[in-house]
Every structure is written in structure tokens, then in C-alpha cells.
Amino acid sequence: MARLIEDITLRDKIHVFDDRAEAGKRLSVILYEYKWKNLIILAVPAGGVPVAHEIAKSFGALLDLIIVRKVQIPGNPEAGFGAVGPDGEVVFNEILMNRLGLTDEEVKEQVEKTKRIVEARNQIYRSGRPFPDLQNKDVIIVDDGLASGYTMYEAVRFIKRRDASKVIVAVPTAPQRTVNMLLSEVDELYCLNIRRTSFFAVADAYRNWFDLSDEEAISILQERSY
């Protein structure tokens, strides 16, 4: 079981961060032991970019991107039953799939649609730039929060396939059930605000929440060189 680092004073609370930038600054404090490590920070765009940017800026660390995308439930684009990684690998939430009763054709259609989105976003964000070498590096994967956790789960699997020495997940907020799922997959999990609730929304952790566009995320990334 991985090591879990949280801020117990924030447990089960809402509206604990001003915005993503403040959440990133607070994460950088508890991640401080990694400041002088052989480290790379990978942001999940778009929302994870401002969080990761603050950590990378604090550490003087390399910041790059990992493109993962949830496989949307037909007719419900806000929810997903799996995720596609940067290399096209797919992970499914089998329990949810069985409950939804999706046909093989529906699953295939949604997966292919998601793969096309991942390819397009790789072009938008990476513009053909190769993925960095992760061998023998500590890798911190950062997002602005977790819900079901399956996009992060696939991100972790992708990093493991690239022989990183250590895989760390760092997020401002997540539900307890998702934290429990990921703990068996990573070396360490940093989550400031863990909530034990049947209904969970990442946005509830923030006083100032808005959807971040690709253009806004790219503007933040341009502040750093790769």
C-alpha cells in the first residue's frame, strides 16, 4: 500500500482553496522533499496545468504534460466509464459498465471517439514533441482534482510502462473511495482535501472555479521552457 499524505484539517471540508494556483502552492509545501530529486512533473490538461505550474515553479523542476481522457457515457458527457491513455491504451470501470448495460458496439464507438480526442489534444499541446524519457526519474502526476479516478489510473499505468523509478500522484482534492483505489497503484499519493461523501464534485473544493480552456492552459505553459 502506498504512502498517503493529506491535510487532516481539510478533511470533509468544501471551498478550501481560492483557485487552482493557490492549491498548487499548498501542494508544493507538502511535496518539498522532492525539490532536489531527479524529478519530472506531468500535468493533466487543462485543469491540472495551473496546479502543476506552481509546483514546478517552486521546485525549478521540468514541467510537461500527460494527455488522458475519460471515455464518456453515451448521452452523459460529464461522466465516464473508462479512460484512454496517451498511447491509446484503455482502462474500463467494469462495475459501471455492467450496470450501464452498454453494447459492444456502443463501447467501441465511445473508445474510438476518445482516442481521436486524445490524438487531437496531443497535437494541440505537444505539437509533435516526443514524450520525455522517464527512466530512473521520480514522476509526479498532477491534476486539479479526482472524481472517479479512472483518467488518473490510466495515467499511472502509462507512466509505469515507461519505467519511472517512482510514481507519485498529487492533487488538491479527491473522494475517499478514489484515493483508496489509487493507493494500490502508486508509490505515494498527496491529496490535501479528502472527502467522504456519496456525492463528490471537484469544483466544491474551490471558492473560484471555472473551466480552463486549452488556450489558457497553453498560455501558462509558455511561461516555462521544456
Quick overview of this protein structure:
The chain is α/β, with parallel strands linked by helices and 226 residues long. It is built from seven helices and nine strands, in the order E-H-E-H-E-E-E-E-H-H-E-H-E-H-E-H.
The CATH class name of the largest domain reads Alpha Beta
Query: Number of helical segments?
Result: 7
Q: What about the largest sheet? A: 6 strands, parallel
* Mean pLDDT score: 90
Structural class given helices, strands, pairing? alpha/beta
Q: How many runs of DSSP E, i.e. beta strands?
A: 9
Shape: globular
Q: Give, in spatial order, the strands making up the sheet with the most strands.
A: 1-9-8-7-2-3
Please indicate the percent range of residues in DSSP E strands (runs of 2 or more): 15-25%
Overall radius of gyration: 17 Å
CA-CA gap between termini: 33 Å
Query: Which spans have pLDDT < 50 for at least 5 consecutive residues?
Result: none
Order of helices and strands: EHEHEEEEHHEHEHEH
The CATH topology of the largest domain is: Rossmann fold
Number of domains: 2
CATH architecture of the largest domain: 3-Layer(aba) Sandwich
Relative helix content? 25-40%
List keywords for this structure.
226 residues, globular, six-stranded parallel beta sheet, Rossmann fold, alpha/beta, three-stranded antiparallel beta sheet, Ybab, Chain: A, 2 domains
